[in-house]
Write a structure and sequence with these properties.
This protein is an alpha/beta fold and about 375 residues long. It folds into two domains: about 150 residues, Spo0b-associated Gtp-binding Protein, Chain: A (Distorted Sandwich), CATH 2.70.210; about 180 residues, Rossmann fold (3-Layer(aba) Sandwich), CATH 3.40.50.300. It is about 25% helix and about 20% strand. It contains six helices and 14 strands. The longest helix has about 40 residues.
Length: about 375
């Protein structure tokens, strides 16, 4: 199946049914009074996260989703039926953005999350609502309200703890193959990876994290070079970036450090918040570097890329240094998760305190 991570759709809630202006007509009851029923509400459009779906391809060709209208009211106190709601199932990690306002309508980050996209219109009132002691035969009724209309952009951002960043052929796909069951395509030419891959790295029975491998980024990506910034959105939910560098390129004229700095600049042009994420440098293909040159090479990268940044060495092909890297990443991910849980608990505590204060002031 083709991987699709962006789509545009139109949604509209159904129109509410019109209210009825009717009067009771039965034998021996000449003045039965008003009995016009209300119109039914229009159907609404919802989005729901489903972990069994992993692409937005269903919304690439079918783009209009209009909910049914509500039925009109009728006489004899008959109320119109409401329109059925439409539920659009989307992959977990989908962000839904209003094209007109730029507002994030929904962010589906958990299986089963359900958000309203377009509200159906209210049904009109029948004339039985307008009867009073001085107006016993009202003839007015109200029409149903139109449903809400929206043009939306769907963006799928994969849910991963760690993102792999690097130039084409740096060894990202080989690394994710070595540490997980993911099997992306691996070849000796650039841009072998054409869409994101996810791999689950298991450290123990109850300890694991998710790694995202995205297509390589090259200098000039902000102008559309290579695959551009097309897939960088998939790194926005990660807590840690691994910047994998080919420290032994076959082309001796290539400067890996210059490429690494250019890649960081492209990242900052795309999203400063993404560039500010914790980023570790991983020097790959160390098996091609003579042992007597490794310390000198490591010192050079540390001085050029910042001595405060954590630097690891490995060989994804021979598995050298991978275990140490994976253990360090697992510790960092666990630390980040603990901080997130603590922040959530603190927000809950603040919310409970505010609710208690409101209740005391109301009393």
């Amino acid at each position: 199946m083709k991987f699709v991570d962006e789509a545009r759709i139109e949604v509209q809630g159904g129109k509410g049914g019109n209210g009825a202006a009717s009067f009771r007509r039965e034998k021996f009851i000449p003045k039965g009074g008003p009995d016009g029923g209300d119109g039914g509400r229009g159907g609404s459009v919802f989005a729901q996260a489903d972990r069994n779906i992993n692409t937005l391809v269903d919304y690439r060709y079918t783009r209009k989703f209009f909910a049914p209208n509500g039925e009109n009211g009728r006489g004899a106190d008959c109320f119109g039926a409401g329109g059925e709601d439409i539920v659009l199932r989307m992959p977990v990690g989908t962000s839904i953005i209003d094209e007109t306002t730029g507002e994030v309508v929904a962010d589906l980050t958990h299986h089963g999350d359900k958000k309203l996209l377009a509200q159906g219109g209210k049904g009109g009132l029948g004339n039985l609502h307008f009867k009073t002691s001085v107006n016993r035969a009202p003839r007015q009724c109200t029409p149903g309200e139109p449903g809400q209309y929206r043009e939306l952009r769907l963006e799928l951002k994969v849910l991963a703890d760690v993102g792999l960043l690097g130039m084409p052929n740096a060894g990202k796909s080989t690394f994710i193959t070595a540490v997980s069951n993911a099997r992306p395509k691996i070849a000796d030419y650039p841009f072998t990876t054409l869409h994101p891959h996810l791999g689950v790295v298991r450290i123990g029975p109850e300890q694991s994290f998710v790694v995202a491998d995205v297509p390589g980024l090259i200098e000039g990506a902000s102008e559309g070079a290579g695959l551009g910034h097309l897939f960088l959105r998939h790194l926005s939910r990660t807590s840690l970036l691994l910047h994998i560098i080919d420290c032994a390129p076959l082309d001796e004229s290539v400067d890996p450090i210059a490429q690494a700095k250019a890649l960081v600049e492209e990242l900052a042009k795309y999203d400063p918040a993404l560039a500010a994420k914790p980023r570790w440098v991983v020097l790959n293909k160390m098996d091609l570097v003579p042992e007597e040159q490794r310390e000198e090479l490591l010192a050079r990268y540390a001085s050029e890329l910042g001595a405060e940044r954590r630097i690891f060495t490995m060989s994804a092909a021979t598995r050298e240094g991978i275990r140490e890297l994976v253990n360090a990443v697992a510790e960092e991910v666990d630390r980040h998760r603990a901080e997130q849980n603590q922040a959530m608990d603190e927000r809950e505590d603040v919310r409970f305190i505010e609710e208690d204060a409101q209740q005391e002031s109301a009393q």
